[in-house]
Each structure stands twice: as structure tokens, then as C-alpha cells.
Amino acid sequence: MTTKQNAPLASLQTLNTPAAVIDVPRMQHNIRRMQSRMDTLGVRLRPHVKTSKCVEVARAQIDAGAAGITVSTLKEAERFFDDGVTDILYAVGMVASKLPAALALRRRGCDLKILTDSVASAQAIVAFGAEFGATFDVWIEIDTDGHRSGIAPNEDALLDVARVLHDGGANLGGVMTHAGSSYDVDTPEALVAIAEQERAGCVRAATRLRDAGLPCPVVSVGSTPTALTAAHLEGVTEVRAGVYVFFDLVMHNIGVCTTDDLALSVLTTVIGHQADKGWAIVDAGWMAMSRDRGTQKQKRDFGYGQVCRIDGSLMPGYQLSGVNQEHGILSREGEPDLDIVARFPIGTLLRILPNHACATGAQFPEYHAIAPDRDLAVWPRLHGW
What we know:
Elements: H1 9-12, E1 19-23, H2 24-41, E2 44-45, H3 55-63, E3 69-71, H4 74-82, E4 87-93, H5 99-107, E5 111-116, H6 119-132, E6 137-142, H7 156-167, E7 171-177, H8 188-211, E8 218-221, H9 224-229, E9 238-239, H10 249-254, E10 264-274, E11 279-282, H11 286-289, E12 306-309, E13 314-323, E14 328-332, H12 340-343, E15 349-353, H13 357-361, E16 366-370, E17 377-380
Parallel strand pairs: 1-16, 2-9, 3-4, 4-5, 5-6, 6-7, 7-8, 8-9
Antiparallel strand pairs: 1-10, 10-11, 10-15, 11-14, 12-13, 12-15, 13-14, 16-17
Helix pairs in contact: 6-7
């Protein structure tokens, strides 16, 4: 991990710990990398802002060429719309209780798209629209890998849902899918195969709709691993990806980034020791790092995070091996470090790279953005639903 991109040490030493730190040059590099790849593949990029939930980060993605955003909560949609983003996909299945909030956004001028994968949900959407004289832009979620939700490309339910929407007066905007199973592999061959499965399945669903005389202008696919490894995206109109903006140790293990790309870390302070065990105790517990153990089943287990010096340089073999609510246990893999007290004196500032950037970011109300050519900046982060 290089140090030339990190902020001056003095700026980090002013922070109360634990603190979430964004390395802005790395973030900008990640944004350019993904945007360039989507431009080369000839598709729009609709970043998923649930990773950062931060206006400044999303604005950097849009300024680089992204077209619209994806959100995971209607609160996100409201916040980003207030900041001037109008093209928003709410990528969680719609239920009747959330339709009033969705309608309020649309009536304010937000080009909000909503999602369904069932006849019951589609019926609720068209019934609400009819009652309030509203036309919703609705996409159908497609299940291309059995990972989570959605309708399989060849299921009869796909046409059933589409007809309910179309005949009921909704705008059938397209289909979307998320290949979450891409997180379970770590070879280029497997990633390419899942990316093609994702693409082909979603395109197949779109083709079935069109063959049935139903509209399907948008074919939206996306995950960070598949976006970065797809051989081609024929038939796809846009890609959604999120964690690429920061990357994390899970993405490192999958093989789509290196530790030099990880733009989010947690600044922490050594507050004690258990010298006989080879432990240093830090003030970043699971309330700072989250309980995400996403690397546990991967080829390299990083515990709760990889330890770095304050300048961001890796300390190979040292990791956050255990956590309590406000305490983290820093230790060395293998043989305990019996020189731990001398190596990490009380008051030492360190940075921890997270397993899952989305989960770790969610623990903090703000980010501290660092770059060598500017002062430390505070970027608020959205919380709640």
C-alpha cells in the first residue's frame, strides 16, 4: 500500500477515534476505473449509493459520467433528490405501505423507479395508482442466480406480473437483476461465467416481455465483481454497482481489486494491552467495524479487518482478530507478538481496512475525507430508513 496518496499525518491526529476515513485519491481512481469500463462496454452506469450514502461521494460518481443512481431506501431517494439527483431507482421490492412516500417524491418531480417481483405487489401498485391518479415507473426484478429475490427469466410469473402492470396503467420500465452469487467465487473464470449468466438471464427476460408485445426499454444488471469482469454486455442498457467506490477486503479476496484500491478505513487508537497474549486493545470494536465477517469463508480471513499504520501502509499478519462493542483486539496471526507493547504503545494511531465497506460505513454519521492537496473535509453520511 503506497503512502503518497494519504493525508498529512497531522490532519489525522486531530480526529477523535474511531473515525471513518476516505482516501479521496483512491476513491476517485476507483470511480474513474468503473466509469471507463462502462464507457468501453457501451452501457450507462447507475451507481448504487447505499455503499456511501453520502452526497459528496455520489456527486463525484455523477461528475465522472454516471447516469442516475440506485438507492436502497426511500430516505436515500429523498436526500439525493433534495441534492438535485432526479433519476433514481429504488432497488428494493415495493410494498403498499411505502407507495405514499414514493408518490410524494414523484409529485415533487423525482423520476423515481420502483421494483416488484410478484403479482400481489404489482396489483397493489396499480390499485394505488388508480386511486390517486398516479402512474408509476415500475421495473421487474429478475433472479438470475438464486441469490435472493426476483422472478426467474423463464417463469410464467414474469409475464403475469408484467401484464398486471401494463394493463393496470403503470409504466413497465424494464427488468433488473443482481448477481449476488459473484461474491462467492474468486477466480477470473468463475467471475466471467457468473457475469455472463447474469447478462444472459436478464436479457432473456427482456426478450420474453418484448416477444409478448410488452415494453421493456431498460435491461439493468449489476454487482461490482460482474461489472469488472463481464466479457461483454450485449443487450444490457445499464449497470448498477456500489462497493467499487471504496472496495474492501471481500472484494480483494474475490480478486477485483488490491489493497492499494481500498479507500475506506477506520482510524483507531491503541488504548491497552494484554501483553502475555500478544494483544493490543484498540477503541474500534464492532460498533465501528460492524460484525461483518465476510472474509471468514474466503481464501484469506482478515478477522474484523487488516491493520495499517497511520500512513495507510499495511502491517502484514496483523489484524483485528476479535471485537466487543467498543473494544477491538489487535493481534498477529500465528505466533503471538510478545513485543506488542513496544510495537504498539498506548496512544498509537492505526487504520483498519474493513471486510465490508457498506457495513463499516453504516456505523458512522460522517466520513473524514483526506487528500494531499486539501484540508481534512467532513462529509455527512445518511442514516435510517
